[in-house]
Amino acid sequence: MAYPVTADFHTHTDSSPDSQAPVEAMCRAAVDRGLTALAITDHVEMVSFLDDGYDRLSARSYRKAVEAQQRFQGKLRIAAGVELGEPIYNMEETRRLLSTHPYDFILGSMHSLGDGQDFYFYDYSKADIPSVLDAYFQGVLELVRWGGFHSLAHLTYPLRYMPPERRPETLTPWQEVIDEIFTLMAGKGLALEINTSGLRGPIGMTSPDLTLIRRFRELGGENITLGSDAHRPEDVGAGLETAASLAIEAGFRYCCLYFEGKPERVRLV
Ligand SMILES: [Zn+2]
Ligand SMILES: [Zn+2]
């Protein structure tokens, strides 16, 4: 029998440029939904760290998460986390950020390539999709080679925004690089995130989907995290039961929470 999921390990607040949700509202929503743990993982896009003011936003996010930890003590365990975008393109600021904020939890993301243009903003009617995905997965491979994070966020991120008629039906052409990514992750003990935001959008599936979650397990992956990627209180905890059932189907028996950078295993079955 499956246990209910009581932790959401990917959420944003108004310290992310694309969210207006106060930390307090996200934490209250978590408590109301019966969660016992929540990771605040605001965006810090390293490719445009100084230009776009992420130095200021990251300090604000961290301070507010730590304040919330105290306010919600005994009701909700809050991980002061970060969603670190494209650290490989700005290692100097990445090292500085991580040495000045002792994060509980770090998600590693690739939202863009070195040009800083988020996949969200691509014109997919014109883009050469196979080349976009080639470059994307090479970027993820580089991110994993560096490995200075806990969980790899939304592995199939660019697919989220492609119109259905342009989206590849299968990722088989990229299986070799994905296998290399998974093998490296398994060896380093890095977690794979099952991100549920696609369940609320037109793509209608988690990132990654069951096929890839299963492949990660086959290649020795042991750790997964579950996250809604909520940017507003009403999405906190959304889809986590679906993510957990996919994880169980793929052969995982527990998911991970991270506090003070250390994994805690929580049973799924
Ligand atoms: Zn993201
Ligand atoms: Zn996110």
How would you characterize this protein structure?
The protein has one domain (7-267): TIM Barrel, CATH 3.20.20. 33% of the residues lie in helices and 19% in strands. The chain is built from seven helices and nine strands; from the N terminus they run βαβαβαβαβαβαβαββ. It has helices spanning 23-32, 54-71, 91-100, 129-146, 175-188, 210-218, 240-249; strands at residues 7-11, 37-45, 77-85, 105-109, 151-152, 191-195, 224-227, 254-259, 262-267. Strand 3, helix 3 (91-100) and strand 4 (105-109) form a beta-alpha-beta unit. Helix 4 (129-146) packs parallel to helix 5 (175-188). The N and C termini lie close together (6 Å). The structure holds zinc ion (2 copies). Residues 83, 109, 111, 153-154 line the site of one zinc ion. One zinc ion binds next to loops.
Sheet-strand content, in percent, reads: 15-25%
Average pLDDT metric = 96
* Structural class by secondary-structure content: alpha/beta
CATH architecture classification: Alpha-Beta Barrel
Radius of gyration: 17 Å
Summarize this structure as a short list of keywords or feature phrases:
about 270 residues; alpha/beta; TIM Barrel; 7-stranded parallel β-sheet; two-stranded antiparallel ribbon; 7 helices; 9 strands; globular; binds zinc ion
